[in-house]
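ingest -> validate -> predict -> emit
validate: passed (alphabet ok, no gaps, 532 aa)
predict: started
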Amino acid sequence: MSSSNNRYGLRRSGGQHGDVFTSPEVVSYMLDLVGYTADKDLSKVKILEPSCGEGEFVLEIVRRLRDSSRRYGFDFGKALLDNVFAYDIDEKKIETCKARLAQDDIHVSLDANIRQGDFLTQQIPAVDVVVGNPPYIRYEQIPQDQLSNYKQLFHTFHYRADLYILFFEKTLRSLRPGGRHCFICSNRWLKNEYGKKLRAWIAESFCLQTILSLEKAPDAFQEEVLAFPAITLISNASPAASFTFAEVTSIQQLENVRGKKLPSPQSSDWSGVFNSIGSDDTLLTIEEMGFMVGIGVATGADSIFIAKDLPGRVEKELLLPALNARDMSGNRLHWSGKYLLNPYKPNGELISLDDFPMAAEYLLFHREALQNRYVARKNPGKWYKTIDRIVPSLKDSPKILLPDISGNQLIFVDEGKYYPQHNLYYITGGTIRQLQLLSALLMSDYVKNQLLNITNCMNGGYPRWQSQYLRKLLMPDINAIKEDLANRLLSAYHKFDLNSLNDVVDTIVSYPRQKSLRKRTSVHQLEFDFSI
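emit:
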């Protein structure tokens, strides 16, 4: 795939953003998957590669078409001009692609077939097959002058969508009835927020046939990549009852892929498809056990509202010990000594600066920076408010603390000492013992494997502890665990003995249980109103 004439900037490696080229073995596998094989008559099959780069897909497509023409006796040159189409935004890469074709003894003029330009704004033909590796351009790297245009053109452009989402929509719309679509790209759209509208559209209007995970196959591309890839096969046909899901650890396994049938997704939420333990109705979500999931405070100006030197600069009663993800690393919790300035009264109203002269002096000193925030421009009279309201009782409440992305194996329970910042998720409700039991479950392989299935892993293989995923985890009700097993689980948690912890959880999960009749009633749930 290709990006541009440096249109999207350069990566740390020196390459352009979007330029990650597919291994030839993967190219061959994908063309086999869509049925574009030389043993068939390809004379009438129209095929499109929307981001051809230096021609890995185009070269193999043309070779297969030539071999098919020899087998079935049709005019290769005419079939090539009539049926093979490719695009790229980078003229130099198109020239490289054409040069590679010439080296392969392809001397047909393809100026009308391999076209330079922004594919997303081009008129494209209706085709039978779409195959390729769309450019992986993050939302932040899309030029501002294109964003508003793309948002008008593409209904799946949702939230902070990466550019490949739009390539999906454009190419799926080009498919003839019965046509097949196969992309290799980042797998993030399968589970995160920005893929929501694309997932819903595919579930409703197309037939999802195959998802092949390449998270554990580092040789899928010709260089190392940060985004974990997946291959998807979609047909322009009515939705089916199931699709095939498979995983490989090396592209050498592509010849013998063995998948399993999973129920086809029915909506924009595909997480249940990948979480295979949802059939046991004795398992509960965190919220069904009565806990509450939340995220720490966003201020819009952390360097002003959160600092070590706030004691002595503002009134003591306005300060709360603030904790962030950096305070929890290496399976240790070490508070940095920073405090959060709380500009709210207990009833949620902003304090009057007349009542707090030290805070008034401090905030007025930073007034210009605070007024430049979006939250302040929207409400100039409340220029010193934070984005989220601060509720001091949250500091005093026992809570589980979960950094968004973390290599920690230990999950911490704060007994009521700290106020979480915006890069921490928290779980409140119940006693410290109940929270510790829940933490032990969250640390187990049983739960972590669920999380790995329903979240997008970051570089390093770490899943994300985000509220949208926390709310989908299923586990035994902590209040239905037999006392002796609960004590063993707590002992393993306090000793940080993961082997024993996993053994106990496996016993709990396999232990015969009666159906729980206490959904949403077993733990007292604390309510915090953060609306502004």
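The domain at 24-193 is CATH 3.40.50.150 (Rossmann fold).
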